[in-house]
## 1
Amino acid sequence: MDEESKKQRDDKSSLDPKRQAYPGQSMPVQGVPDEIDAIKKLLTEELEPWFRRDSSVQGRDARRCREYLDSLSDEELISQYNELRDQKVVWDNGYFYPNIKRLFMTPFEREKDRREIAVWERQYGDSEVVKWYQESRSQPCTWWIENHIITKHAFHSCMNCGLCTAVCPAAEFNDYNPRKIMETVQRKDEEEIVELLKADTIWFCVQCGSCQTRCPRGNSPFGLISSLRQLCQLKGYHTASVRGRQQYAGRHLWGGNYWNRGWSLYFRNPVVESNLDFGPRFARYFQNKEEIYRRVGGCPDMDGSMPGRKVPPETLHQLRRCFQVGGALHLWDQIEKYAREQAREWDMDIDDYLYKVWHEG
Amino acid sequence: MEQVVILGGGVAGMQTAIALNDLGIKSVLVEKEPELGGKVKNYDKTFPFFRSGKALVRELDESVKTSSLIEVRTGTEVSSVTGTAPNFQVKLTSADQKIPAGAIVVATGFEPFDASLQEEYGYGVYPNVITATELEHLLDFDGPTGGELERPSDGEIAKRVAIVFCVGSRSEKLGHNYCSRICCSFSTKQAIEIKERYPDARVTCFYMDIRTYGRGFEEMYRRAQELGINYIRGRVAECGMLPNGDITIKAEDTLLGKPVRGTFNLVSLSTGMVPCLDAPRIASLLGIKLAEDGFFDCRDNDLYPNDASREGVFLAGSAIGMKPIPDCISDGNIAAARAAAFLKKQVIPQGFY
Amino acid sequence: MPTVPYNTRAREKIWTRYIKEVPEERFLFLPSCVLGVGYPGTETMIPGIFDLLGLDWNWNLGPESVCTCCSGIAYHGDVAPIESTLLTTARLWSLAQEAGYDAIAVACVTSFGVHCECFDLYREEPGLKKKMDRLLMEACGRKFELPRHIVHVSDVIYQHRMKLGGEFMVHRLTDKATGQSLRGVDHVGCHYHKLFPLERSLGGAEYCEVLSGLVKAWGGEEVDYPERRHCCGMGFRQCMITPNRSVTTACVNKKLESMEPFGPDFMVTNCPGCQVYLDKEQWAIRELTGKEYFVPVLTYMELAGLLLGWDPYDVVGIQFHTVPVEPLLDKIGIPYDESKAWLGKDGQPLFCADEIRRATPAAGKAREGQLLE
């Protein structure tokens, strides 16, 4: 760290908790225009539905937009997205990226994400982790239970004492029983396990870990369930249940955020319409989130270190590579594949399908 | 004349001495407490026949007193053992002189598990969570409450009682994988005592398995069920306390496959048993091995279950592993016979090492 | 108020079995996803408190070395296999080593849990470190070592609680009118104390002390109640995929029902997820059942910030809360200007006076019906 940055960091003279920059980040240059024409150019009437987030794109509009996007090559689509994403304006002593809010959670971003998986697979090939997961798809579930790194350590000889179910919050409120899941897996009956995976059952777990604390044999039911959920999605059994299908929503909510923003949640995600349970004060804040964020010292869609920040492309690339080498991209590919299959089976557009699985339950 | 030193003056140790006396062999009975009788001298009722533990110990004590060949040394412990069988030299903390011993019998017993180590039950923190030993005292007519089940927080008679099985046992997490064998039995006994004394009480036992075997035990379990004692198959996960001192319990009724919640006036933790705290020290003094579970190891689990891993040393009672009182008495007879045989032959058996 | 007290000395004997080593300073600070989304004031205060205490810390070192999410939510939301999480955390550990630190301090409890889970896997699987060395090099050309310390920011605050309370704080957790200690319910995130209680939780699983220690050090009183260890129900996919959120509401309701007889004045959390849902679901519970609990829920950082005398709206950000915090400020005697709640970054009002009044209801007089204008 250079002296100037150190000085900046160590300066306590005003005890200003609103730290804005990370050491080495350059401050904005004077004279940058406030508006950039390229934004306006791209938001034609044709493309406008792709930036709508409130409901699915249906029927006539979907066809028209899809025709347009199909006409672009993968590289064109991706570079158009990136260009929009990285356009910035000066605002409140920093750089503000105005288009991120137009891009997140749109059919446009999702289509780009889908195509980008193919581009990355072409560019980087399959890592050894991906190869293992590919192999596991052709093996029986019992093979996974014996070989997956998590299951190996999550589970050895359950004596059915019921301690896990006793403390499980999901078991209190749902028809769900972790002990029964452990017992089913323990029996190693392939048919029974497949039946379990095709049901809603394993999707009720809240992943709190209370079961792990209590188990007298040191098992981890929630770890086992995590592992079963992965297996379920790799094999495509999740589309057989209402709760399992919701994973398509997870793939785009978290996957989209990770891939494009470097964090699992984006400050614009909790829209009021889907979070009425949060009450009126939340709705008030959400209407003017950038201002209120800025007031407490955040960096909403800005360069900087504070909450809401945009992650620089260099770091984002490293994170993406971790996800690609680590097999997450491959998992998303599988989830997309099974979603496409089911959407086709139901004669639905893929974005209508997403809307459906996100709102059922 | 050859003599045997017996470490531990509980029922197993006392019976060893009595049996040796019957065989005409002298013994020195060493006990660290001021009185003989071990744990059983405090039990008002034993299982499965509800006989008096105190009376049993009184009877053994009488026999010991009237035996000419038993020398009793209370309030003392072993500080060193030198030599090899049949010429051991045992030094006690209370005397300077060394005692010669042809054979040694270890009957040092057990300790109840410290329930505060299973923190989720709140023992020590919540006043109305007690252990089985404390419950025993509450039910004792000669005890502090004259046999009334007065709960600690306010002295009210506890009418809704929960008994939690397997506290401290069958748990890898706590480092005690084994089953303590007698807790199902004494818990059932206590449940019966409560229900008979207060017929309108609700008593619930939370168990994993009911391990009441042997003559009279299954019958005792049946009697408990016929009295209306509730048995719920599910291990208790945690206890909490309400403002009025009542204890909340979380468990699963695994037979019905649903989580259950209960509120009780009093919760008794049926603590399992751990080896006596001195076991490692005694093992190293005597040069004998401890088994993986911490109790004393025997020479062969099938053929020589009462022989220690070293020649001339024998084992009796709970020091080897938990067992009911008749088995401890049995063990006393066995250890005496083995020691006597050893003294008589003074030959190292074939293939010992 | 409880009539039967529990034995505090016995409780202390239990939690003091679990004292973990927390370094005094020199750590890489890793911010959180959810905290930044729901309660950004908490996170912007963390550098301020670290600097106040004069700690040696760092975070985003340069454009290639910016902290990212640990991928915990992706892993527990089942869209990321464990290997990608292992790689993401390995990269973060590599950042710490780049800064010359052997400790990381995380602001999120899911993150804390995930770092500990990854660390534990290396211990359980012998060949894993070599494999991850290879994979991390392939992914982003970095090397990493297992960090010597993985701590949560609340551990650091706990470590310095006496200094903060003694030297810097201007308010105490006492009722201004009566002088009595305020009763604070501590809600420690599940992944902090339930996953590895022996090695990672300050106070163990049952009587976790990291938050109640803060409450006591700053003049308050801890509260024990039966559902204290109950999960808040956030549940990753359960709360974030909204049709499933009923389990979250039910869990929050269960906890509130259980704690009510013990008369809590506030709740304190160290997990962002718990903070969001314990706070926000209280509105839903009021709508669904008519029962208004409205126990203010604060993060440990907000509690510290308020007691340090930092501005409730400008710095701490209590306007982000669904359950009004103002009644608690009244109890403590912290001054605030309610008309300043809904101002923008330049002090310009964002809403008209009428709306401001409606948006900051005192407990018991919350506005019915209309949620959007």
Note: The CA atoms of residues 272 and 280 of chain A lie 9 Å apart.
## 2
Amino acid sequence: MILRVDDLRTFFPVRRGLLKRKVGEIKAVDGVSFSIQPGTTLGLVGESGSGKSTVARTVLRLYQPTTGTVEFKGRDITRVSMRRLRPLRRHMPMVFQDPGSSLDPRKTVGALIGEPLLVHKLATSREAYRKRIAELIDLVGLPETAADRMPHEFSGGQRQRVAIARAIASEPDFLVLDEAVSALDVSVQAQIVNLLEDLQARLGIAYLFIAHDLSVVRHISDQVAVMYLGRIVEIGNRDEIFAHPRHPYTRLLLSAVAVPDPVIEAKRERVIIRGELPSLLNRPRGCHFSNRCPLVTPECHEIDPPLVPLSTTHAAACIRIGEAT
Amino acid sequence: MTAATKPVLAVRDLRTYFRTRTGDVKAVDGVSYHVNPGEIVAFVGESGCGKSVTQYSTLQLVPPPGEVVGGEVLFEGLNLLDLKPYSPQMRAVRGGGIGVVFQEPMTSLNPVMTVGKQIAESIRVHLKLSRADAMSRSIDLLTRVGIPDAAQRARAYPHEFSGGMRQRVMIAMALACDPRLIIADEATTALDVTTEAQLLEMIRDVVRETETALILVTHNLGIVARYADRVYVMYAGDIVESGTTSEIFENPKHPYTLGLLSAMPRIDDPHERQLEPIPGVPPNLLDKPDRCPFMPRCPFATATCETSPKPLLEGGEHSAACYEVDRSQSLLRAQRELREQRAELAARSVVNDLTAPGGMP
């Protein structure tokens, strides 16, 4: 197990007034558990505000969890001091959506890729440093001459390659990809998705892959977790989620994705989710999805459903799971 | 659509260049298209292909240093390019005959005016109604686009709405003056997929009901397949393929269209499928050479493609701007096999599973 997250909660205080008194809490992540095996990918999907990015940032301790534990390679890192955390960070880098703003525009691509090597003291000599940068540039499919050029000289897809090279420079076993391919055009996005798959096959890196595009997530993930208002409402193997979704929210989410094929689209009867995503400050009582759910019963407004296992790998949080076939 | 119907919008050889110090960027490089009454037409392509600039050009809203340098834009028989961009006639077209919905509702809405008033303002300007009549019409419109408690919400300010609701307000505004054409430029791109689906279904129902034509600018081929009647595929400032939605998806002729379809991950893919990216990147539109713009990335390119001038659409209902359409058809056959696999897979996949009897109500 590379990563095990248990009952993780990340709350942000809401402060109001002159004295900035705490008047409430935003429960951005509210009891999330999952684990990732070495060399595999967990896809985290959900709408904006569902808490998927907060999960990633809490796992990396960019946010301090309120309660719960994060175990990285068997070691509880939830309360490790920042000084002790730093050497561990080497093994758990992150790639963001927009390489334009996550890469220092004044550094050359070589310096950007080499930075983790210096921070973590991974290069023994100037020669080794250069050699490693050249290796990484080659590994992510950038032109050889890239090292001496500036990030702005590259297209969005190429810059994302730089960000990936930088992330894998420290030979991590685990990589967080937060909407890393979302801003890219289809033809380029496919290049990056293939690169990520290829790197995983070659280097055995595990991914926490966050995206709102379900088609991409289906493509790259081994396991998928669906989040809604800070909770995981369904988690399972890729096929369990995409071919046999059980939670009503998952089913509606999948139904909303258009397939680029008019023949299939014409045959599909679409069930459109009603209403709007409630605010995290004002989540419905009982099941948080109850106000939008087509299968809602009076009980749903009372009972906060736990994740119910459906197989050893598949679980969903809905009290009506047992009834549906 | 029969050939006899007179198009509501007919564009011929439209060219828009951005005059920069280093030269002209040919953002729109001679595109011709038409939209029939009540038709949903999609413009699809990747960022920078000119699909949005084309729309800005017809509306005379291209920001400097951009300039429409040639062509003809016939809207209900009137050449819009003969009008001054800020003339009364042109203003009457924008927001009157043609409604527009942009991607960013927050930047298009006035933050210090209630949404009801903003919609009413445009109604008063274009339809010359009284204040009270305009307000009641704007409340009707808000109801129509699915805003609950419209009478009350009309008194709210844009920041009090969610992203999806704001975009509904924009759609209400676009519909305000009974337009004959609505242009939706990536109108739902920034929204979550469930909200996007809600909005697109609503827009489709409204335009079908009022027989308004709709131009849907998007990079999402799924949306094109779901909603469009006809498609224009753009690449590097050119329309490279046009046809009915079913023709474009079932018999794509242009290698770029084929490439896009193979690069796109699908929610109903067979598992073993590898995405096939299009190698390289789109060309620099500065000093664009006069040859097929896709040639450097094209797997079917020949010596002819390199030396001949830019291929033009062959004309007709389904048409591609390519010298080597025959060669691309062999790839298409391979893709057919994939498609058959998919159909088999669909039998037990999510697509049917979701709509199976006893599934969702």
Note: Chain A touches chain B through 55 residues (CB under 8 Å).
